[in-house]
Amino acid sequence: MKKHHQVTGLHFDGDCMVLTIDGREKTFRVSELSPVLQNASKKEKILFEVSPSGYGIHWPLLDEDLSIDGLLGVVHRPKKLLLIQNHAILDVSRSRQHEGESSC
Questions:
Q1: Is residue 21 part of a domain?
Q2: pLDDT at 44
Q3: What residues of the chain score a pLDDT lower than 70?
Q4: Domain containing residue 15: CATH number
Q5: Where are the beta strands (DSSP E) in 1-104?
């Protein structure tokens, strides 16, 4: 299975969640991420699981999940949408090449 991300560390420091993702340390304000985590006890926060794919973090005692891509601001688009956008870009490029030529 291909890993999306490698999470090698997670701890809390006050209102901050400190994650080591793909070798880089990132800090997030818990109050901006999840009211469930914000109101959780220390015991509830420290019991977490990283998905085998590295896609998300799950807190079983809280039934709370966060996606790593969501934390990092990664946006995914369906392949069909990308193909449509790329086709539209190609069509615009072609029309610019032929500007001034009559289509009739």
A1: yes
A2: 97
A3: 1, 76-104
A4: 3.30.2020.40
A5: 7-13, 16-21, 24-29, 49-50, 56-59, 64-67
84-97 confidence digits (pLDDT tens): 555 555 444 444 44
Identify whether 12 is part of a domain: yes
Other residues' Cβ atoms within 10 Å of the Cβ of residue 59: 19
Residues in CB range of 95: below 8 A, 6 or more apart = none
Dihedral (Cα; 52, 58, 63, 67), 10-degree rounding: -100
pLDDT score of 75: 75
Domain membership flag for residue 88: no
Look at the alpha carbons of 7, 8, 12, 15 in this order and tell me if their dihedral is positive or negative: negative
Q: Give the whole-angstrom CA distance, residue 72 versus residue 26.
A: 9
Mean pLDDT of the chain: 82
Question: Domains in the chain: how many in total?
Answer: 1
90 residue type, one letter: L
